[in-house]
Amino acid sequence: MIQTLKPDLITYSKAVEVETLDASTGTYRANISDAYLIVSVPNGGYVAATIIEAASLHMAPKSQPHPLTAHFEFLTRSTVGPVIITIEVVKPGRQLTTLHATLHQQNLLPAAPWTTPSSRKCITAYLTMTSLPLSGLSLTRFTLPNPPPPTPDFSLLISDTDPNWTSHPFLTTHLRAVAALQNLHFFAPRPGTPHQPRTIPDMWIRLSTPNAHFTTSHLPFVIDSLPFSVEALRPAPGHDENAPFKHDEMFWYPTVVMNLEVKRPLEERDEVEWLFLRMKTREIRDGRFDLEVVVLDVEGRLVCVGSQVGLVLGMERNVGGRGKI
């Protein structure tokens, strides 16, 4: 079993805090926290969220602080510590502006030009920035096919006495080594509750930090928190003989590509405590999987849609130091 030290929980806003170095050149600095590690590698969605924060800061003077869409390419693993984020305005517009962003790490400089030829490009991204909500025609409202169990009584859910939903037990399993997961509380349908196929899990989540609320910058982390649709196929203890892998085998799920479309921005003043996630994987093939995540609020309104391509690797690839994914 891989053991890791549990870092102190810090507020997400502090973990994704971005400092302006030079707004005229679109240069920003952030610091990657060890509170969001997947064993030894920071969670990719969390690191991507620092890019969204930098983009929002960059576009605030243009009154376009909200990401409408974001596409992230994970080029190599990041590490705990400082990063430099550079932003280029590719196509300005009165309603929509397209940005190209790159997150750099290692061999950074304390002053301009901030990066060196030997600095690593960990993530590159394209973002469409705007001011939400946009004015225009609205015709339909999304509803989930095959509805989940009834929306819980959240006061009962906190005490784990809701009749349909219960706290997910992953922190008592092999996943207790994943520090990033300790920043969220997950609640799944109770065993025996009519539910989706195992590869289409549903979850209610809230933040572990007391009195914290979800914001738009949480969304990349939320949709990349863990591919539960892959973990749902893990064999039970004692059923390893004919299973494709052992019940306690550790996997690392690095994200290759991630896409995000925001339907409704989440502001701190909205005090959004709970979010609903439905995850769907169509096929796990040759160590690769697709993942689609739909995020709703407590009123059943669509908050965002995320998708990604990920890998299934042995955990030794995570803890073995820098190398090719």
Automatic annotation (TrEMBL):
Organism domain of life: Eukaryota
Residues in coiled coil: none
InterPro entries referenced in this protein's UniProt entry, alphabetically: ACOT8-like_C, Acyl-CoA_hotdog, HotDog_dom_sf, Sec_Metab_Biosynth-Assoc, TesB_ACOT8-like_N
Protein name as it appears in the record: Thioesterase-like superfamily-domain-containing protein
Pfam family, one: 4HBT_3C
Ranges for domain Acyl-CoA thioesterase-like C-terminal: 165-312
Span of the signal peptide: none
Segments forming domain Acyl-CoA thioesterase-like N-terminal HotDog: 41-128
